Amino acid sequence: FSDMASACSILYEEQVLCSICLGEFKEPVSTPCGHNFCKGCITQYWNSQDNAQCPLCKRRLGNKPELKVNTEFRDVVEHFNRMRVQGGPKIVAQPGEVPCDVCTKPKLKAHKTCLVCLASYCKPHLESHQNLKKHKLIDPVSNLEDRVCKKHDKMLELFCRTDQQCVCMMCLNDDHTGHEAVPLERAFKDWRGMYENMTLKMKKTEIFSFLSVKNIRCFVEKSRETTVDEIRETVQILTAFVASVQKYQGELVEAIEQKQKDIEKQAEDQTTLLEQGISGVRRLRCDIEQLMQSEDYLYLLQNYPFNVMSENTHLMDQPTDSILRMTQDIPDIGQQGHIEMVKKSVGQIEETLRNEMKMLIQKDELMKIQQCNAVDVTLDPYTASNWLKVSGDGKRLTFRGHQQIFSSFFGRPFKYLPYVLAKEGFSSGRFYYEVQVSNCKRWLVGVVKEYINREINSIPTPEDGAWILNTPRNMFLNQIQTIGVFVDYEEAKVSFYDVEARSEICTFTE
């Protein structure tokens, strides 16, 4: 079988391919000199010449002979084609793969593409085509028409650096006369170096982005763990605080109850003494009333209990208002002092906790604002007062100390006060920016509407279309290093922050 396949391969290569189109014979005809060609190929070849001759042996054939299809040779070709398809590897082109342009159905998968013939060949057809040494073969590609100049029908072999496009040789004498053109291979090498640098940068960016994503995820994970720990510790602290308050509550209630017991005992003792005194007074009063009923004066005077009267005068001399005062003071001694003390202590603790919680919430809120709403602000020198000097980058402002008169052709500056506006403006959304004021004894920072009067001669107010923070009105602001300004346009709110302390200074609404 191996010898037969080899013989078939030799026969196929030498005898069953047209030497003009290098493909399988279509309607094969034989010339008088004994060579075989496709009828269409030899006819087209002879039409391009004055005299008929054999393309292979160059024998002159005189007048163009009348050719007829060699039916026996055609049958032999078809027979060997069937043997080739059945005996060879059946690598049929699948959808998306480049098929062989020579094969009849089924078309085999192309192995190479010839840039000269503009055709793709499978391995069997490529064996005979490789005898054409000057033809350039590349890996199989489709859409070969894209590799041909549409204007000159020539291969695109050059790259015009002037117009940055692929051209053919004829284009250099036409639309690209005098342009710098190089072979495609050289242009590809130049571009490959640039692409390699680009891909290297892309790889670095990819690696950096990957590491950044990894770091962000690690940060989020650590932040989540830290948050869980903070929540747990916060709950523990507050729970311990509540337990401590409950403990002191129990002790305080117990102390109040003990105080009440002491008051009740004191009151009971006082009551007992008073009741005893009342009984003595009552008995004495009864004895005196009984004596007073007698008309025997001698007996009355001889039997009057002077000694008893002298011993019990303290009962009759006890002031009634002192007894009432003692009974009225009992509730105040037992309750009012503790209640006022508890109210004052709880109020102080509550205010401290509220302020601390507010500070923590404001810190988180400011961090979120800085991350999500920060914008870059640049000062506009054409709006600056003649008292002020704006740096070249628009980031620093200097007070001249004297007014410098100069004309402003590009903008309208503030006329009387040392103010300046920013270049940027906003009409929606949220934005946040920071201004460093640590080196300024007096400053004014804020947000104004676009129509602000630039001839104003006093500090502007919200009625003037300005929401500002300034040291003349708030002297304590001199200790602040950096002012943060946050504007929520839809909510109509302007807030000012102490960036270092991470606390809100004030907020304008509406």
UniProtKB/TrEMBL annotation:
GO terms for molecular function: zinc ion binding. Residues 18-58 form the RING-type domain. It comes from the Eukaryota. Its main location: cytoplasm. CDD domains: Bbox2_TRIM16-like (cd19769). It is found in: Cytoplasm. Keywords: Cytoplasm, Immunity, Innate immunity, Metal-binding, Zinc, Zinc-finger. Gene3D superfamilies: 2.60.120.920, Classic Zinc Finger, Zinc/RING finger domain, C3HC4 (zinc finger). InterPro entries: B30.2/SPRY, B30.2/SPRY_sf, Butyrophylin_SPRY, ConA-like_dom_sf, E3_ubiq-ligase_TRIM/RNF, PRY, SPRY_dom, TRIM8/14/16/25/29/45/65_CC. GO terms for biological process: innate immune response. Residues 144-184 form the B box-type domain. Residues 357-510 form the B30.2/SPRY domain. SUPFAM superfamilies: B-box zinc-binding domain, Concanavalin A-like lectins/glucanases, RING/U-box. GO terms for cellular component: cytoplasm. PANTHER family: B-BOX DOMAIN CONTAINING, BLOODTHIRSTY-RELATED GENE FAMILY, MEMBER 16 ISOFORM X1-RELATED. This is Uncharacterized protein. The lineage of its organism: Eukaryota, Metazoa, Chordata, Craniata, Vertebrata.
